[in-house]
Amino acid sequence: MKSLSSSALLGALLSLILILAQCHGAEVRGNTPWSIILCKFKDVSDEPKSLQFFKNFATLAGSGTGNLADYYSDQSYGKVSLLGSEVRGWFV
Description:
alpha/beta, flat
């Protein structure tokens, strides 16, 4: 019985490895604009950070500061840009 369950586990593991080996990520290049939506809880009146903070963090508005746009550009060797990304909020 123990041998059967070990064989089943090994078979499942090998199947998973074969499936994962065939998976490929989608290639991303060029402008990939994001829409960042800022949300907060209804019972919290304060905004954790300003809208401008998130614009500087996640769009080209903060280029050259080590933000998210810089990260994607650096990691893709300049092939990915967040040009056109927008930050919207705060929504409840």
